[in-house]
Amino acid sequence: MTDYSEEQRNELEALESIYPDSFTVLSEKPTTFTITVTSEAGENDETVQTTLKFTYREKYPDETPLYEIVSQENLDDNDVMDIIKLLEQQAEENLGMVMIFTLVSAVQEKLNEIVDQIKTRREEEKKQKEREAEEEEKQRFHGTPVTIENFLNWKAKFDAELLEIKRKKMKEEEQAGKNKLSGKQLFEMDHNLDTSDIQFLEEAGNNVEVDESLFQEMDDLELEDEEDDPDYNPVNLDSD
To answer: Where is this region: Disordered (predicted)?
Structure first.
C-alpha cells in the first residue's frame, strides 16, 4: 500500500532545499505551498516571473496536484494561458510520480522562452522603425514618382484652388467697387473738405512759397492789343 503522506513529506523537504528563497508553505492540511519562478535575465536585465501555488490531493502522486498562478510580472494573458496548459500537460505525463520539480522546471524553461521572444519582438520593432525612417528619408529627398494618374490629380486640385482664388479676388473687387465713393459723395460726407484749403492757407500764413519759375514774365507773353485786332469794333462794345 502506497504511503502518500510519506511521499509528499519527502518531496516537500526536497523542494525546500532546492528553492530556499522562493518556497513557502501556506498550510499543512491540506498541504499547500507556493514557489516563485523567475526567468533568466533578458535584455536590459529584464525578467518575467510567476508564483505557482500547489495543493496536494489525498492520493498524490497518483492524483495530479491542484495548481494555479497567483501572481505574475511582465506576462500577458496569452503567456499565462500557455503556462496553465503546460502545467496540465506535464501533470498528466508524470502521473504516478512526484512531479512538482518537473512542473516548476517546465515553467522555468517557458519563462526563458518568453524573455527571448520579448527580445526578438523588440529587435523586430526596432528594425521596422529604422526601415520606416529610411523610407521617409528617401521620400523627402526623392519625392513621389510622377505618374499620369497622380499628375492629373494634382492638376485638378491646383486648378480648383486657382479658381477659388480668382473667385475670391473678383468678389473682393466687386465689393470694393460698391463701397467706393465719388468725389461728390466724399465732399458731401465730410464738410471739412470745403474749408481744408482755406485752413491750410491760414495755418501757413506768410510762409507759403511760390515757385516763380512756373510763371513767365509778362513781357514774354504774346498778347494782342485789341486795337490791332482786325475784328475789333468799338461799336459792338457800345451795343453790348
So the answer is: 122-141, 209-240
Overall average pLDDT of the 21-32 stretch: 94
Q: Cell for 66?
A: 491542484
pLDDT in tens, 110-120: 999 998 888 88
pLDDT given for residue 196 in this prediction:
56
Residue 8 falls in which region: left (phi positive, over 0), alpha (psi -120 to 50) or beta = alpha
Separation between Cα atoms, residue 194 and residue 224, nearest integer Å: 38
Whether residue 24 lies inside any domain: the answer is yes
Residues paired with 38 in a beta bridge:
49
Residue 179, in any domain of the structure: no
- If one counts the domains in the chain, the total is 1
User: Which of residues 62 and 195 earns the better pLDDT score?
Assistant: 62
Is there a contact between 43 and 68 (Cβ–Cβ < 8 Å)?
no
How far apart are alpha carbons 225 and 184 in whole angstroms?
Answer: 41
User: In a 3-state reduction of DSSP, which class is residue 42?
Assistant: coil
Domain residues for 78?
4-119
Measured distance CA(70)–CA(179) in Å, rounded: 82
Give dist(CA 98, CA 11) in Å, integer: 7
CATH number at residue 87: 3.10.110.10
**Do the domain assignments include residue 182?**
no
Within-domain flag for 231:
no
Q: What average pLDDT does the segment 160-170 reach? A: 90
Q: How far apart are CA 68 and CA 52, in angstroms?
A: 6
Please state, rounded to an integer, the average pLDDT across all residues of the chain: 81
